[in-house]
Amino acid sequence: MKKTFMLLVLTVLSVVALVACQEEAKLTKITFTGVTDVTDIAYGTEFNVLTGVKAIGDDNKDYTDKITVQSVATISESGVLDTQAVGVAAVKYVVTVGNVTGEKWRYLTVLNPTAVEGEMLINGDFSGGTGGWTDPNVNYIADGAEMTISAEDGALKVEVVAGANVYTPRFGQMNVPFELNKTYQVSFRAKSSVEKTINLQVGELLTSSPWFTDFKPGQTENRLITTEWATYSYKFTHKLDNKRGGILFELGKLGNDQINATMWFDDIEITESTPDADTVAPTFSGLTAERSVLIGASFDPLAGVTAFDVVDGDVTDNIVVVIKDASQAVVTAVDTSVEGTFTLEYAIEDEAGNEATFTVTLSVLGMLFSETNVLKNGDFAAPINETTPEWTTWGQDWGNVAVFTGSIVDGAYQMDITNPGDAGTWSVQFVQKVDLVEGVTYRASFDVKSSVARDIDFVVTQDVTYYEHFKQAGIQLTTEFQTFQYVFTVDKTTDNTKFEFDLGATPNAAPSIITFDNIKLQEAVLDPLLVNTEFDALGWQGFYNDWEGSMASLSVVNGEFKYSLTKYTNGSAGYLLQLIYGTKLVLEPNTTYTFTFDAYASKDLTLNPFFTQGDAAGWNNIVTSGTVAITTTKATYTVTATTGEGVALPFELKFEFGTQFAPFESGDEYIMWDNLSFKKAEGPELLMNGSAQEVLQWTYDNSGGATGNMQLVDGKAVVTVETLGAAYQPHMYQMLSGLKAGNYMLKVVVSSSVARDLRVNFVVPAWGYSSIIPGGSHDFAVEVDTEKVVYVPFTVANDITDQVKFEFDFGTLGGELISLPGTFTISEILLYQVIA
Question: What are the CBM-cenC domain coordinates in residue numbering (predicted)?
């Protein structure tokens, strides 16, 4: 009995212990099921993100009823996903029990709706919300633009902040099945919160340059959208076998208008149509009103010239050109053997009888060019640099991939092109990056041939903006070497500039071996028009023995000349380091001159003021009172110099101090000068810019009661105007000896301490100060502390042999223009002739 009782007790205790263990199990983890990603949710169908989802704890309890969801997508309280929002919706499932939280991400993809049978667009009436119109591969926002798209009252609402380009922002739809040689009408209803003109495009977006294939080339469609609902439409005929394109609504800056607005669109529709009557004339490409070629150059008036008609397409073969000489007599060709002027009259007519004409004035120039080739290895005498190649190639690497190889063969470069691709003329490129200078005229020349007759393009372009400094399309190659040369002026800044041959899908492209040799880019040797245009002329030169690796510079710091020596390799002779006055002095015989200057240095040292007529006079040097010991503290020093009888040659003024510094690899030793003066007793000052604050070769005029001054500050001309007179009182100016007939560009870069208007002008004093600028001057507004870059193009019809005065006016301009005193900081005034 005792044993039975004991066994019963032990059994009860075991059950109690087991129950106790089960009650002590703790929750440490929550696991979700049914949360696999879904990639094919049909547009507009019902999808509940909670359906089939469970949350089970490791304590074997079901916590599904505690699930909450988090997402930027629209999900109802009951878990229904908004499937009219196309794209990927990230959904986060969360369950929290006590201090245990379970989380799981899930990605749900809502597909675009499909087009209704018989319709070319998806959801053109927006009955399906924004579906079909929010593809991030189509819609584009950049350049400061903003765009928010939503559905409102059965229409598409687009809130627009216009960017800096016409296509920023844009929305649209691709993969519209346009068929070859069919005419379509695109129509839509729209309104805007404010009147806004938009650009309408049809074509295929590309993933690389040129980024877009235009389905209506030469046909621009702009529409002014008003504040009331209205219907808009346009037609185009599809000339390509391409069903990948679509329509685009471009809402950015158009012309000078950059308008923000809220816009609404509805009933966007594309239907087959019939073409309207053709009343539009063809358009030319590759023509400019002014062109030039060099003496001896070959010239084909049709090279690079094309014509396009919206209806007939490429009508280049129908171009007719009539050539007239300077007496307007018709000639058969341009004579490039001598300088002269020709008139080229181009005409083109389409099948409907619409005619376009264009007149070109061609100048044959006898210009000189530097022997230096801006390009590297243009004769291919050396192998292509493998580390930093001077010449590179590029080809289309998608779709119809371009296939080619390039190498140097027998001292020339061969491009063996077996497939030129199909993306455009640029689908195969032969390139060298170059550094060009704004305002400089260049001559490009090269020898080229092809194993079969074909054409190529040549372009000098910026790699990022694709701004073309020069382009010659349609260069016709034969199986024999031909020499081509082109003259152009760089009229923009030149970052990332490419000297580029386009060898791809040109109009007459063909598999071939193209051979290049003697490729040159040379600067024209031209006298400057305006001088000291960047205000970097100091009138003094810092000299150092750079042939041994020394490094020094001369600058103006806080209104003083600073000669900085950062490396010195030889301290054996005084002439190894010098400060030299840039203009030689014509002195009187047997005369004493006084030379005064302020100086100090990074350490105590001795300067040797030196006056010499150079090697031509056997280093006939004026005797001075000796060397000058300077310290680290600024002080004024005076020496005298007396000439003798031999003063037929002018004298050079300099300091020599090469023995004052021991050689060193790196450092910052310096000498400072200020208030340099050289003159005879009671005589005029003979030095320019002894104060280190003069703006050399520019004159400041305070006439007419105006007050102010002009000083050189940190490499810029700073004009301080205290009181104003007439429009040209005060003004800064420079005289030109004349101007040849041609096209010119003036560039001014200025900032101001006040908001006002300023004026630039070119006048001819001998003509009663008549202006040669259209309108009599060029006025522009400046803002406070904002650098303004101003370009002023103008044309001189005939050679001007009289002096021409450029002036920058700071006076009272009159009329509605704002005229105020202030400080005006000018960093550049550049004038150059534009030769195309």
Answer: 119-252, 373-505, 529-653
